[in-house]
Amino acid sequence: MSLAVRVIPCLDVDAGRVVKGVNFAGLRDAGDPVELARRYDEQGADELTFLDITASSGGRETTYEIVRRTAEQVFIPLTVGGGVRTVDDVDALLRAGADKVGVNTAAVARPELIAEIAQRFGNQVLVLSADVRRVPTGGAATSSGFEVTTHGGRQGTGIDALQWVQRAAELGAGEILLNSMDADGTKDGYDLTLIGLARSVVQVPVIASGGAGAVEHFAPALEAGADAVLAASVFHFGELTVGDVKDSLRARGLPVR
Asked: pTM of the full predicted structure?
């Protein structure tokens, strides 16, 4: 691993506020997204990710306004996802100040969207956000034992998660944001098995997401094959700083900025 690994705070935004729950439920308020973004920039975050978790059409302008305000004050790469359904949605977010755009549900419904975005804006703009869970008992069997979910993790698809991320990379996704729905918000650590499996089937960067709860959780995710680690609640509620995480990674001999 020669490139510096990235530490990425994630801001789940609902109606203009940052929220966080467990397994995408029981949401509680975590603050103003622009204020949090400024804090993380000062702490040395390498990037920021905004996810509009409700993404109703009525709230779309709220998201654009948050992106504009954040881009004016923060000078690290900003990825924005949630409710992105068309090439025009990507164009509007980039014009608002996003550097990269995440796609999820719409890409599952119509994989051609990935190629359309990549062809128009370049692979480096496109992040495939994959909400993945272990197949529940009685669920549709997949060869890897992991399936893709949609609608904020609420709906299983029966699509094999590893086959999906591999196809997405082939279609033009520049990065894979790999979110373990089983680990999300639990603070029990990243799903290292899932990370390792994803690493074995794609060459593009993999961002590990879901489960960070202690400073000791980050290095194992990177050692399992992730290129970046993403976390939310441990940063939002002041349990850890970005600096704490980077110090722990340096102590393990991992290259950080």
From this structure: 0.93
Q: What is the CA radius of gyration of the chain?
A: 17
In angstroms, the Cα distances linking 102 to 39, 47, 148, 207, 255 are 23, 14, 15, 12, 26
Q: Which position among 14, 46, 131, 191 bears the catalytic label? A: 131
- In the annotation, is 14 catalytic? no
Instruction: Quote the CA–CA distance of 158 and 35 in Å, as a whole number.
Output: 39
In the predicted model, what is the mean pLDDT of the chain?
A: 91
Question: Which of the following is catalytic: 12, 46, 52, 191?
Answer: 12
Has 29 been annotated as catalytic?
A: no
CB distance 152 to 24 below 8 Å:
yes
Q: Cα 165 from chain centroid?
A: 14
Question: pLDDT tens digits for 198-246?
Answer: 999 999 999 999 999 999 999 999 999 999 999 998 998 899 999 999 9
